[in-house]
Amino acid sequence: MTTYTTVTAPIEGQKPGTSGLRKKTRVFMEPNYLENFVQATLNAIGGAQGKRFVVGGDGRYFNREAIQIILRMAAANGAAEVIVGRDGILSTPAVSHLIRMNQTDGGFILSASHNPGGIDADFGIKFNSENGGPAPEGLTNQIFAQTKTLDAYHITQKDDVDLSRIGISRLGSMTLHVVDPVESYSTLMQTLFDFDAIRALFASGFTMRFDAMHAVTGPYATEILEEMLGAPAGTVINGTPSEDFGKGHPDPNPIWAKDLMTEMMSDSAPDLGAASDGDGDRNMIVGRGAYVTPSDSLAVLAANAHLAPAYRRGLAGIARSMPTSGAADRVASWLGIPAYETPTGWKFFGTLLDAGKVTLCGEESAGTGSDHVREKDGLWAVLLWLNILAVRKQSVAQIMATHWAEYGRDYYSRYDFEAVASDKANALMQGLIAKLPQLPGQQIAGLTVSAADEFTYTDPVDGSVASNQGVRIMFESGARAVFRLSGTGTEGATIRVYLEQFSGLGGDISQDPQTALAAVWAAAVALTDMEQTIGRITPDVIT
Ligand code: VG1
Ligand code: CO
Questions:
Q1: Catalytic residue at 96?
Q2: Could you report the per-residue pLDDT of 86-120, keeping only the tens digit for each?
């Protein structure tokens, strides 16, 4: 087998600190582009000689080609073994589990998550470390540094390998292990949840709709829900991964999972609705006539986790990303366990999970997970909900009403402004940051600011510091507005405004969320002079 060394071209635009690289698919298809990122990553981890990796992706356009390139590069760089999902398919949580279970040196995930797929849409790649979690900041900074000095990459010239059959073969001196994408993951789920109780729930006539959004969770949900747990055929819809996700946007929220929402709000709604994103790490939960915000879902899962076998002994702690509502903190305080507030992005949960400081983690963007892997896990959250529903024998709406009655309700919504010119988005943020020291005590659109800062996080485990993680404005009314720029978009800038209003204990929990948030939204608009700075105050997406 001949190993070729090819001169590289620079990778443009990769942001330091991001756990992966997301770009237009055509950019990834340019000569040397993907290769450069892979070589930079292998260099950053000290080379691939004798190492073992997991590789898989969400099935989007260019998934197969990218995996063939990575396999040939791993072989040329001296890797000992690569474990790859059949047909190149693996969900993000399944990769995390395979890395941990097989104690490999890490893994590559091909996905742009919730971004659309196709030749004219988005592609992405991320590297997860040997703990199964997204590469930490230190490593991503090294990858970025490598991309600037890289002058060559190594690849073997060989025909594509057959990934359609499970089994072991060789690529040069490297062992190639093609595995069933679902098997190890479904085995793990059986150790966490009471499958008998969930099976009995379905047998009793409980109905569910799981929208896999033409993305990677289709095979996982079909196997686990329909085959193992006895949910009727047809419970899983859009269950075959397609290269362009059926031309959809595999983001599990009320906007992009609109058909599911319509069904759940109709008279013929099943008992539970759920959806997952492109790479299977996010989830949406909706009961009959009752949408559950991701922030509330984290809180309810935390309050009820002890009903599932894996969490019977309680939780060590709960972590949420900063923009996520305070609902989970109230549960933590009632349980008498620590609550952590981390920057956006799952990588910040890794050290807390590894140190055993937290058991559950969650983000307002529909990511929830636990210490069973080091990624958020869409289907895991759905199964935990099912386990809770099987034990409590109440509807989702009843569980929510009881929860709010006990803890109060954190009304919550996120407003996204997409494809904003980068200079305008930066001007909005900089203008706001400049005002922060003067804000406490001021009245803004009728609300009094109690505190205002730019979020800086010091990791309690390794002491690393992440600054500039978004702006928080707290109001005396129990409201909060958070502003940050998205790190995952591929066109211009996306401004995310996160709005929150606590009802207070014993307060009104029956309002329409947008009504409850109207005052804090008015304050957010006034604070940023939004009309002036970006020329619009109507968001593209409200979730
Ligand atoms: C978004 C979400 C964030 C999530 C990230 C990756 O980031 O807001 O909570 O961790 O996507 O999720 P941003 O920077 O666009 O707000 V995924 O499912 O794309 O791996
Ligand atoms: Co995702």
A1: no
A2: 999 999 999 999 999 999 999 999 999 989 999 99
Name residues whose C-beta falls within 8 Å of residue 56's C-beta, 6 or more positions apart in sequence. Answer: 67, 84, 85, 88, 89, 90, 91, 94, 95, 107, 109, 110, 181
Q: What is the pLDDT of residues 123-182, one digit of tens each?
A: 999 999 999 999 988 898 899 888 888 889 999 987 889 999 999 999 999 999 999 999
Provide the angle, in degrees to the nearest 10, between the axes of the packed helices 183-192 and 92-101: 80
Q: Using one digit for the tens of pLDDT, what is the confidence trace for 224-240?
A: 999 999 999 999 999 99
The H or E element that residue 383 is part of is: helix 378-392
Q: What is the set of domains in the chain, with CATH numbers?
A: 2-181 (3.40.120.10), 185-407 (3.40.120.10), 410-542 (3.30.310.50)
pLDDT exceeds cutoff 60 at 257: yes
* Token pair in block for residue 291: 């949408």
Pick the most confident of 35-39, 185-189, 465-469: 185-189
CB atoms within 10 A of CB 435: 16
- Mean per-residue pLDDT for 441-467? 95
Which atom of ligand 1 is nearest the CA belonging to 363?
9
Instruction: Please determine, for residue 53, whether its predicted confidence score (pLDDT) is greater than 90.
Output: yes
Q: Which of 113, 129, 186, 242 is catalytic?
A: 113
pTM, 2 dp: 0.94
Give, using CA atoms, the residue closest to atom 1 of ligand 1: 488
Which sign, positive or negative, has the C-alpha torsion 429, 431, 433, 439?
negative
Residue 18: its pLDDT value, please? 61
Which runs of E-coded beta strand occur in 101-207? 107-110, 122-128, 152-156, 167-171, 174-179
Specify the pLDDT at position 8: 60
Radius of gyration of the chain, Cα coordinates, nearest whole angstrom: 23
- Among the bound ligands, the one closest to the CA of 344: 1
pLDDT class of 3 with cuts at 50, 70, 90: low
Q: How far is the CA of 173 from the centre of ligand 1 (A)?
A: 38
Starting at the earlier edge strand, list the strands of the sheet with 81-89. Answer: 20-24, 122-128, 107-110, 52-57, 81-89, 174-179, 167-171
| Angle ∠(396,399,404) on CA atoms, nearest 5 | 125
Average pLDDT, the chain: 94
Closest Cα to atom 18 of ligand 1: 113
d(CA 377, CA 527): 36
The reply to whether ligand 1 has any atom less than 6 angstroms from the CB of 263 is no
Strand partners, 519: none
361 contacts 368 by C-beta, under 8 angstroms: yes
List % helix, strand, coil for the chain (3-state, nearest 5). 35, 25, 40
Residue 282 beta carbon below 6 angstroms from any ligand 1 atom: yes
Tell how far the Cα of 109 is from the centroid of ligand 2, in angstroms: 11
CA of 280 to the centre of ligand 2 (A): 6
**Is the CB of residue 188 less than 8 Å from the CB of residue 234?**
no
Residue 199 CB neighbours (<10 A): 15
